Every structure is written in C-alpha cells, then in structure tokens.
C-alpha cells in the first residue's frame, strides 16, 4: 500500500523537488512507494486539513512549514484544522532565502534597491505566497527596517513567483534560493541578499542579511518538516523519522541538497517539537510587532 505525502505547494517548488527525490530513495527501504499529492493554496490549510482528517495509520503524511503550525492558528479565525491534531515527525531542512528582483530594476545591490523603493513611494510590488504568510512577513520586515512601502501581490507557489519576477510582471520577492538557481545562471533575476551565516559559494558577491544589518529577519529561519496525525503510533513515528534522518545525512543526498543551496536539519521528533514551540513564540511576537489583524 502506498504512503500519501500531502504537499501544500505546487509541483516544481523546492519542497516538492526534495520530497519527490527523497520518496524515490526511500521506496526500497520502506518496501512501499511514497506518492506525492500537491494541494497548494489557502496558506497550506487544504493539505493540513486533509492530513488531520486521515486515519492515523502512517499511510497519509504531510509536509508543512511554520505557516501551518504557527501562523494560521494565530491569524485565522475559522481555521478548519487544529495544529494540535498534527504530530511532528521530522524536520527536514532550513530554507536559505534570498531577496530577489526582476532583471529590469535599475538597482544593482541592496543599497540601491532600498533607495529605489524609497523613491518609488510604494510603487514597487512584492510577490508573496499569500497574505500573512512568512513571505508576507518578510515584506513587512523590509518595510520596517528600510522605511519604505511595497505593494504585496499573492501567488500560489514559488515557481509562479519566479516566473513573474523573471518576466518583469512583479518587482521584488523573498524566496528560497533553490527556486532560482537556473534563472540566476541565465541572468533572468537579480539577487540582492541571502540568509545564512556566510555568503554562499555559488554567489560570493551577494552579501548576507547580517552584513546588511538585517539579521533578525523572520523567514531567515523558515523550515519544512513532516507531520502525521496526533494519534499516530510512536513506532511508526520512530520508523519514519529514522529513515529520513538517515537519508538526509547520506553524502549523495547531502550533495543533492547542496545543489539546491539547501541545508538539511533533521533530528528527533522531540527536537522538532521544541523548534515549533520557539517558532510559535517568534510568530506571536511578529503579529504583535506588526499589528497584523486576525481574519
């Protein structure tokens, strides 16, 4: 019997690519296939609801980010799932993000982009994955730190955002670096800054957020992990956790993650649960800081 993995992003997105590759590698070890089902939209609500309502037998799992566990419960009044019904199994990786712009922008570095945004007085727009998602909080963060305004425009997934950026349809975004590797090689997007503790070897001329004095950015610590139902038996949790931890630390898979400019961050379910609790606190502080209303 196949295991269903519900993914709340579009096909071709970073999490989709990583889950498909890991599913292929784990098929022989688990003795059964892992089938990826994409359910994008609604700030991950669709996939989370389906996951919580499935039988806790290990045959329906989901991959979600902090939007599902920490943002939606704080900001959505009529949420159709309870995050307490999701059991953390394993954190997979931490996203290395980047501040991107369309190739037509006259700004060639972060300082020039800030000046351009200030001069445009709200005329530059910012692509994100939905109102009050972590990518939208990134917009609020840059508005606060730079003293500028961006017009937020929601898209369904990362691939759609990068298509819009590269075609000039939208001006600026904050997204995972892995989503634009090919576009960067082709010169179809501009990269102004990256998260992480050091400059990326692929882009040695691009400064880190810390170098720009922006080291407290919320989405700099964004993660993706696998969850099951609250009643999922511990032996199943342990088995799935163990297989993903082992895979994500194998040299060949690490090499694959490196090709996507992504860092694996697997650990125990307990470590993942602790990370989620820290994330809850961070998001609650952000909501208060930016006075974001419930809806």
Notable traits:
alpha/beta; five-stranded mixed beta sheet; 295 residues; 10 helices
Instruction: Give the beta-strand count.
Output: 11
**N to C succession of SSEs:** EHEHEHEEHEHEHEHEEHHEH
Average pLDDT confidence is 94
First-last Cα distance: 40 Å
The number of distinct helices, counting runs of at least 4 residues, comes to 10
Proportion of beta-strand residues: 15-25%
What report would you give on this structure?
There is one protein chain. By secondary structure, the chain is an alpha/beta fold. It is built from ten helices and eleven strands. The strands form two sheets. The protein has a six-stranded mixed beta sheet with strand order 2-1-3-10-4-11, sandwiched between helices. Helix 5 links the parallel strand 6 and strand 7. The longest helix has 22 residues, at 269-290.
Task: Please provide a brief summary of the model.
This protein is α/β, with parallel strands linked by helices and 295 residues long.
SSE layout and pairings?
Elements: E1 3-7, H1 14-30, E2 34-38, H2 45-53, E3 60-65, H3 66-75, E4 86-94, E5 97-101, H4 110-120, E6 125-128, H5 134-146, E7 151-154, H6 158-167, E8 172-176, H7 181-185, E9 190-194, E10 223-229, H8 234-248, H9 251-259, E11 263-264, H10 269-290
Parallel strand pairs: 1-2, 1-3, 6-7, 6-8
Antiparallel strand pairs: 3-10, 4-10, 4-11, 5-8, 5-9
Helix pairs in contact: 1-8, 3-10
